[in-house]
Amino acid sequence: MIRINLLPYREARRAQRSQLLVLAFVGILLLAVLLYYGVYSIFSARVADERGKVQYLQRVTTQLDQKIASIADLRKKRDELFSREGIITDLQNKRDMVVHLFNTLARVTPDGVFLTHLRQTGNAITVDGYAQANDQVAAFMRNIEASRIFEKPELNIISKSKLNNEDVGQFTLQMSIRPPTAPAQSGIPAPSKGTQP
Description:
Layout: H1 7-94, H2 97-108, E1 113-121, E2 124-131, H3 134-146, E3 150-163, E4 166-177
Antiparallel strand pairs: 1-2, 2-4, 3-4
């Protein structure tokens, strides 16, 4: 009978299996490292992309903040210019007001009425004067009401007085200046011919 010793064969087979197991473990380890590196690379790329987007948005936000600040400055300058323009327009509209006031006052003052003092406070005008008769003061008030510049005449004081040894009525009258109408951009509309001022 032939005897075969299988021990070296089994030992060799065990050694081969151990090597295969070690190689499989090393392969799995390498595969896990590659997988981890791939996942890490993907997430790193996404994080870098998101950081780039955030930095871009921060730059855009900074630029927009600067533009908003410049727009606010421009609006402030615009409002200042509109305010100046309003003041200039108001002065332009009122520059002929004194001439119109005195011309109209001369036209509405009837014969026999003498004005001695005139005071203006804002849109209110106070007039002191003398009249030969009370009817003339009433006519003066009617003329004021009919004028285009003055309105709301109110007689404050009327009393008897002597002027050059004549009996006259001394009066104090208050009136208001009419606000300019919207169509008349140049301030006070010029009175048309043939109509009473």
